[in-house]
Amino acid sequence: MKPSPALFLLAAVPLLFAGCATPTASPTAAAGFEQIRPVLEASCVHCHGSERLAGMPSFSSTRDLAALTGPGRLIVPGAPESSRFFQVVAMSDSDIGAMPPTGHALAPREVELLKSWIAGGAELPDKNVALRPHGRSPRSR
Questions:
Q1: Helices 108-119, 33-43: inter-axial angle, 10-degree rounding
Q2: CA neighbor of 101 nearest in space, from 60, 65, 141
Q3: By mean pLDDT, which of 9-13, 70-74, 84-88 is the weakest?
Q4: What is the mean pLDDT of the chain?
Q5: What is the C-alpha R_g of the chain?
Q6: Does residue 60 register a pLDDT over 80?
Q7: Distance (Å, whole) CA 68 – CA 70
Q8: Which has the least CB within 10 A, 86, 96, 103, 107?
Q9: Which of 112, 128, 123 is nearest to 78 (CA)?
Q10: CA–CA gap between residue 50 and residue 64 (Å, rounded)
Q11: Residue 12, pLDDT score
């Protein structure tokens, strides 16, 4: 018995649609800048932006973040546990020096995003991007 052309068409349909599936991010994929940007703007830029206290590192732009990134700096690409930036956001609210200050810890998902971003190389866009505070200041929550 000779297979019918309809049988071949039915067998090919799943293969046709397999190429149309929307790719999903791997659960182990590093977070990108656009994923961490909302965290920075909601919880960091209020105090580390353009109106920060003297001596505070600036998170006003990706250029400022780049200046804080590198071996021995605040953000050590590939090494979240060695990055002071990650260390202070991962602290418990009750720890002295935890950021954001005064009992406004980041959500565990936000901490994991920052960790993933740093572990993945702390990539920043080539073009300078201004960061602006969004929402209420962490100090007023």
A1: 130
A2: 141
A3: 9-13
A4: 80
A5: 22
A6: yes
A7: 7
A8: 96
A9: 123
A10: 11
A11: 44
Return the amino acid letter for 99.
M
Long-range own/partner contacts, residues 109-113 (CB < 8 A, 24 or more apart): 110/39, 110/43, 113/31, 113/35, 113/36, 113/39
The label of the residue with tokens 């002295």 reads 96
DSSP for 111-137, written as a single string: HHHHHHHHHTT----SS--B----SS-
Classify the C-alpha dihedral 34-58-45-93 as positive or negative.
positive
Sequence-ordered list of residues with C-beta below 8 angstroms from that of 118, at least 6 positions apart, any chain: 75, 76, 77, 78, 79, 80, 83, 85, 86
The structure tokens 């702390």 sit at 122
One-letter amino acid for residue 64 of the chain: D
Distance between CA atoms of residues 5 and 136, nearest Å: 64
pLDDT in tens, 97-136: 889 886 678 899 999 999 999 999 999 999 999 999 887 6
pTM passes above 0.85: no
Tokens for 118, please give them: 């740093």
Place of tokens 């019918």: 4
